[in-house]
Amino acid sequence: MVVIPNQQDVLFGKGAAINSHPGNCHFRSLVESHKPQFLLEVRQRKRSVAAEIVKQIRDSGGRFLTIEGTDGSSNNPTGTSVGEMTDDNNYVHRRILARKWISVEDDTEVILKVMHRLREKSKREKQEKSGPHPPVTASSKNKEEDSDIGFSAKLGQTRDNDELDRPDAVGSQIEIRANSPDDNDSDDDAEGEKLSSSPEVDEDSVQLLFEEPHEGGGAPHSMFAKFELDLTQPNCEDVGALCNFNSRRDEDLSKHPQTGTNLDQLTHFCEDNEGEDPIEHLYEGTLRQWIERSKLRCNTSVLDYAKSALPIAEKLTACLVEADKDEQSGDGNPIPLASIAAANVLIRAKELGLNNCTDGLTVTNGPGRKEVIDYVSIMSCVGDNPDAGGAMSRLFALGLILYELFTGEDAPANDTSNLMSLHSISLDNNEKCNYRPRKKSQRSEVSPMLQCLVKLNLTGTPQSMCALVRNLLDCGQGDSCSDDAYSSFSDVLSDLQLMVDQPSQFLNNITVNPLPKLLICHKLYGRDEEKKRLEKSYQQHIEGNCGGVIIMGKAGVGKSTLALHFQALTQEANGYFLTAKFDQTQDVHPLDTVGSIFNSLCDLFAQDATGYQFNMVSEALEVALGIQAGHLLGICPSLAKLMPSCLVLGYSSCTNTSMSIQFLFGELLRVVSSHSRRITFFLDDLQWGDPKSLQLIGSLISSNEGSKSVFFICSYRDTEVQENRSFNQWLSSASIVSLERMNLDGMTIDGVNHLISDSLRLSPRITYPLSSVLHHKAGGGNPLFLRQLIELLKEKGYIYVDLSYPKWSWELDKIAELEISDDVVSFLIEEMQKLDASLQFGLKIASCIGSSIECSVLNILSKDIGQDLQDILQQVSQKGFMNVGSGMCSFSHDKIQQAAYELMSERERHTNHLRFGLAIYMNTLDMHVGDKYLFMSVHQINHAERDAILIPGQRSFIAALNLKAGKRSIELSDINTAFRLFKHGVSFLGEDHWNTDYELSINLFDAVSDAACVLNNGDAVTFYSKQLFDNARCSDDKLNCMCGVIKSLCNQGLHKEAVETSYKILVTLGETLPRPMEDDTLCADMDTMNNILQNTTNEAFLNKEEITLKRIVILMRMYENLNRAFYFFEPSLVVATSLRMIELTIKFGLCNSSPVAFAFYGQVLVSLGKFDLGGRLGRVALKLLEKQHLMSQKPWIFPILYQSIFWLSTPLQSIADAHITGYRAGQQSGDLIASYTNLFLSLTMNYVTGQCLLDLRKNYRDLAIKRIPSFNGKLFNVPLFHLQVCVLTEGLHMLDARQIDNVPGVEETRAIMHGDERLALPLVHVHGLVRILLFRQFDHTTVTNVGLISDLLSRKPILFRPIFLFGLFFEGLVSFQLVHGTTDEEASLWMAKGEFVLEKMKRWHDHFAWNFENKLLLLEAER
User: Fold this and answer.
1) For residues 279 and 227, what is the distance between their CA atoms, to the nearest angstrom?
2) Hey, which of 483, 531, 583, 920 has its CA 20 to 30 A from 309?
3) In this predicted structure, what is the pLDDT of residue 573?
4) How far is 212 from 242, CA to CA, in rounded Å?
């Protein structure tokens, strides 16, 4: 059926009118937009792309039409200009309307034509000048379209569908036909009509396919062109003009009188927006066209041209690699050897504006322009020999292409006869060789290949590219080629990628004047798997599932370098990366290592925080750290930037300074991390960490478990911790269980080869033999060993610069025969011993100071030794042993420091340490530099043995210096360092020191004993206190040490032993031993004191003077420790000891123990029913705590005040809140037992006041599991309450459970109490009474078995607490219930018990109705 074409139709046919038809123009735009997708799709889905175009045409109302009775190849309509209006106002050419058109309904035929158009290239390679150009085929359509890179497969082979294999299939060939001078309508059809081959084509009459000349002659038009192609004239109106970049343009234009077109002009460009500046130009052409074009446009250096050619070389080689892979997998045929030639290489490139260029492989093409190589492919030509050839022949052919690409000159012809004559060897490795290589003397002329190589070098092409081409051309010699010759395209591709990715390493020439230094790259080599694990761990951390990693391995394997990979990850997350390294020589400045990392954190946050963040953090820190913030200030001075108030607050004494520091640092990190960026801590060489630093780090890790803000990286040497008990205990502790373990071994051979390749700037395939030898000699790939070994080989001349190319080269045989120590330290010592004596001396001095040394210290030591140490160490740094920076010199690795230290004998080390320590101290006495030099000098001196001290009186001076430094350490809250310094001071005392240095000895032994007590080191307390007791001249000199002994026993839970020791001391001092409550004299003394107290105002107590007598202060401390012991051991004796403390306070004044006196005595008065006076003394104790800033007293005085006194005058919920304050105070002062006691009591008040039982169950469980194990069951009441809550929520059957929520049940709790159940007996009664009432077990026998609180009160006075009030209330309810349902005798008994409870409630209600009114009303109602 004949139809009339409209604007939407696509017409099959030829000619300018059909080409310019609107439907055909729209069709071409659709094809161009779908080409990238078509090229990327796999073969099975390419048809769907064409079908989508057909669908879009039909959906827009278009049809596919062909001329009736023809296949579209009949004479083309000609006539008027494009775009003339027809009579029916459609833009349809009148000559088109004059034809009879029919619709092509068969979509299969249409899709085949569209697929041909999608494959069609817009440029063709011109013929070789030496002969007629073979017809170009599209027989493969190609493998080029089936891969990202593309190439033409074997002639006649198509893979899109079976129909294309037929000889008459549409698009089976592309015709390059002669152009008649009088035929201007000779363009091919836009939709891919079947083309015929015309091998008799004349070179001068080759016409560009799909192209139409201007009317009247002139420049040819490309149907793809939309804009003027001159990049310097983006707004030119000559739309579609083809830009010719051939340098022989005038000659080419003369080849055809009308079009001037030849095969070198197969180029076209596209721009995005007409009338605007060009953004993107598309270029397609041959390799030779690109070369000529680049010569004209890149009038810069040879290096710039080389860089522009590299992407082409890379993509061309990748094309060959992919072809070989497809051949091996059976997915395609190989590229024929004859097709691997420069004439068959096609290139597509894009020119982009610089702002739109994102590809790294770009070349600048004029101002504001860059060229990006899109793809490179190889055409197969009709008539080519289909033989693929051998691997070496194919590599040689690639070498010829790259020679032409890199030089811009024609390469010698790649024919077998020429190669045979040149190399006398078959290029095909599979063929039997019938020729032998000629001897050099037989050659009568220079071979063309040698001429090529000479010319390649003379062009100034980078040596790496020359070497690549040379090694490829060397493949032409087959089995006789050199070791550097290539063996596969993959090797070539790897080398090209290195040149493209790292031009400074692998492309640029090595300078030979002066000779280059061998720079060993400081990168992470051979750790790809480890890096992936780190990145995975960090991602898990962000999700809250990983707290950090621990990296372990030998010294020098790259633990630190691997850990620093996190720095990039943290920075990508816009976080802070903070690092600290422990020194083998032990940092003597208290907590210097950990403090430095927090100091940096405070500095960074203060710098980056907004005003709102800063205020929030400052306020939060004041609450979290309180007055104890001063303890951190000496360790972390920058804390003052975030919390200015800590400068004026000072600080209070601590019960356990170490525990206090842990809590304070944890709170500082918690507050800052909750308002800052993500934080990563890297702590290096933890095997050198002191026990307290390790304990602090473990606490920080544990407290941040599950945090998404703080990530820890720890590293240590697993070969140096076997005898480090404290570190191994830390490593196996539960505090670091959330850290992932990672074991690091030496680098693999590939990793070593990567390092060697980068350092020598040579291909990895060339350096691999050398790397294999070095891997074996460098301790199995130890990076530190390897770097030092490379330096040694360079010094020996075994690695050198070959000036003939130039490049790095080596003597592999000599390197393999070189004998090297297997131990890195021994190897380093051997190298250091080769240095000049002055350099060795500089290394020795630096190794004594530490892993790093400040220039100011060098200046001090330079004056002492009379040499310029800075100059000496500068020379040492040139040998690679040290790094010299601004104001600091440091060893490149601590193994180097160890080697330098071992250069000295033992005696020489001791002498140097003593000399340097004294020099630093004496030269800094008048300098206001803080404590840094004090600790540094003491640290140096303490490394010297006593025998090194020869001057009389010097030992006493050094002992006093240690005492001074130790006291300063206590002020800086580092008791562990203080203990170590005091011990050193004792060791330096003379043999007759008790006679010659009595005061110094007393002070040192007193100090070391006290420090050991704080550290809970009972053995040390016993050892040093015994010596003091044996040698002290009077009892007053013993008192302080005695108090330390008692406190130590209490801290260890040995309360009976503490009481016995206290009694002995009290007898020695003439004190009366504590009397029981039944003693009449005690009651009389109490009455007398009560009268005094009632007649003394609170202000009078608060304004008393401080006690000045040392003996009285020590007595108060001793009684305070006794009260603590009695609190657990015999509470009734607290009456006598607290009374004695009140007597001493009234008589002599106030001291730090005075709040304890008022609190304990107030508790006694309340238990005796004197509520008013007892409550008043409690308030005095509270005010004294605030006045004297006694943070260490608060956590254990709060339970006394609020559980024994204030329950009568304070709402129970307020008591719970007060215990939270006590809990925090205990954390801040390091008194963990008192702290968790307050937390337990707060939970108990929540239980009494009716808080959610499920929440209480969780909190009790957390306290029982995470806290109690650390205190040997001292909080055994916690499991009892956890069990009670579980029974109330789930039922009575829970009483039979051995464990609940991993918390001990009844039986295990009794085991924890060690059989001493009387301490928990009141709680057992309370919990039983609650269960009886709530589970309605009103049975006389059951209640009797449980026990009653009233029975305890009647038998013996007890210190009454709110939990007992709670139990007494339930006893009253149960008693009234039992009145109904029992015998008259039993009923009267239960009524009496109920009335007893009711009377108690009334009395307490009259005193404070808030806590008792509801209970009183319920009891009256139940009665």
Assistant:
1) 12
2) 483
3) 79
4) 11
CB 316 within 8 A of CB 322: no
CA distance 211 to 223: 6
pLDDT category, 1215, cuts 50, 70, 90?
very high
For the chain, how many helices (H) and strands (E)? 61, 22
What is the 3-class SS of 1053-1097, one letter each residue?
A: CCHHHHHHHHHHHHHHHCCCCCCCCCCHHHHHHHHHHHHHHHCCC
What whole-number distance in Å separates Cα of residue 211 and Cα of residue 203?
17
Amino acid at 1015: L
* pLDDT digit string, tens, across residues 48-71: 888 989 988 988 888 989 888 654
CB 79 within 8 A of CB 95: yes
Place of tokens 């008065």: 1165
Return the structure tokens found at 956: 């006493």
For residue 1180, give Cα distances in angstroms to 154, 633, 1097, 1098, 1263: 104, 31, 10, 6, 32
Q: Is the pLDDT of residue 245 over 60?
A: no
Q: Amino acid identity, residue 361? A: L
User: Quick one: which of 516, 554, 518, 550 has its CA closest to 534?
Assistant: 550
| Strand stretches in 562-601, DSSP E | 576-581
User: CA 1360 to CA 1362: how far, in whole Å?
Assistant: 7
Task: Tell me the pLDDT tens digit for each residue of 700-725.
Answer: 998 888 888 999 999 998 888 877 88
Distances (CA, A) of 657 to 514, 636, 977, 1388: 61, 15, 12, 58
pLDDT 10s digits, 1119-1162: 888 887 777 667 778 889 999 999 999 999 999 889 999 999 99
* Beta pairing class for 10-12 and 64-67: parallel
Hey, what are 1237's tokens?
Answer: 């006691």
**Are 291 and 388 contacting, i.e. CB atoms less than 8 angstroms apart?**
no
Q: What is the pLDDT of residue 297?
A: 64
Total residues belonging to the chain: 1423
pLDDT digits (tens, 9 = 90+) for 1225-1235: 888 887 888 88
Closest CA to 116 of 46, 185, 64: 46
**Res 699 pLDDT > 70:** yes
Among candidates 735, 505, 675, 690, which has minimal Cα distance to 591?
690
Find all residues with CB under 8 Å of 903, minimum gap 6, and list them: 829, 832, 833, 840, 843, 844, 847
Residues with Cβ within 8 Å of 450's Cβ and at least 6 positions away in sequence, in order, are none
- In angstroms, what CA-CA distances link 172 with 117, 193, 476, 747, 1188? 12, 10, 35, 55, 102
The helix (run of H) or strand (run of E) holding residue 150 is none
CB crowding 17-46: b at 16 or more within 10 Å, else e: bbbbbbbbbbbbebbeebbeebbebeeeeb
Q: How far apart are alpha carbons 702 and 483 in whole angstroms?
A: 58
pLDDT for the residue numbered 1011: 86
The single-letter code of the amino acid at 33 is: S
The SS3 of residue 65 is strand
Provide the phi-psi class of 67: left if phi over 0, else alpha when psi is between -120 and 50, else beta.
beta
Calpha distance 71→63 (Å, rounded): 16
Distance of CA 328 to the CA centre of its chain: 42
329 Cβ contact partners less than 8 Å away, ≥ 6 residues apart: none
Report how far Cα 134 is from the mean position of its chain's Cα atoms.
60
Average pLDDT over residues 881-909: 86
pTM of the model: 0.64
Torsion angles phi and psi, residue 576, rounded to 5: -100, 135
pLDDT tops 60 at residue 515: yes
Which DSSP string corresponds to 7-74?
Answer: TT-EEES-SHHHHT-HHHHHHHHHHHHHHHHHHHS-HHHHHHHHHHHHHHHHHTT--EEEETTSSS-S
Q: Which secondary-structure segment (H or E) carries 371?
A: strand 369-378
Distance CA 188, CA 1242 (A): 93
Helix H or strand E segment including 611: helix 611-625
